[in-house]
Each structure stands twice: as structure tokens, then as C-alpha cells.
């Protein structure tokens, strides 16, 4: 919800200093999803102290059970061309990994693989003795 962006999400990001972000969207409302994704990417740029711990950004395109028979993940991402370029550029500049995954929480398709990669990326490395 737009009303939460400037207060709740920004405060949460500043205080939590997350190692990872999972951003989920589906195929139903591209304009609103673009706004939200751009807000998160801008927040990362404007809060370097909070962003320095970031290791992984997982962009999940959900409801593949609904769009998967008619479109590919690439087809859906064409609508988000500028945002995915921005994500790639930012990840290279700030040194975090990113992944884009098509999933279906209803059927479970793609969820396990995406979450495994996400958690492996944010898991702290063991300290050498």
C-alpha cells in the first residue's frame, strides 16, 4: 500500500538492515508493481548504511500456474524492462546478487529452487579459525 512506503517500509529497512529482500509480484497490475519495485530500488540507493548488508534480491513473479501456459517469464519481464535493468545495474554497483524467478505458490512450482538459492546467498559464511 502506498501509504506504508515512506514510513513503515523505510523504517523497517533502516532498522533491519536485511541480508536479503524477496519482492513478489504477479502479472495482474504492472503499473503498481513497477512503482513499488522502483520505490524499493530507490530506497536501497538512498540508504547505503542499511543496504551494505544486502547479499541477495529475489524478484519473484508469482502465479505461474495462471500465466505459464500462455506466456514465458521473459514475456512478462518485457513489461518491466527498465526496472530489471535498474536491478541488474544496482546489484553490480553495490555488490549484491539478484535472481528473477517465475513461481506458483499454489502448485509450488519454482518456489523451492528460488528459496534455496536465496537462503544460500544470504547465509553468513563460516568464520575461518
SSE inventory with pairings:
Elements lengths: L1 H15 L3 E6 L4 H17 L1 H4 L4 E6 L2 H4 L5 H5 L3 H14 L2 E6 L8 H12 L7
Parallel strand pairs: 1-2, 2-3
Helix pairs in contact: 2-6
Tags for this model:
129 residues, alpha/beta, 3-stranded parallel beta sheet
Give the CA-based shape. Answer: globular
Integer average pLDDT: 92
Helix content: 55-70%
- Percent range for β-strand residues: 5-15%
Q: Total number of helical segments?
A: 7
Largest sheet: 3 strands, parallel
Rounded to the nearest angstrom, the radius of gyration is: 15 Å
Structural class: alpha/beta
Distance between the termini: 46 Å
Detail the poorly predicted runs: none
- Order of strands in the sheet with most strands: 1-2-3
Which sequence of SSEs, written as H and E, runs from N to C? Answer: HEHHEHHHEH
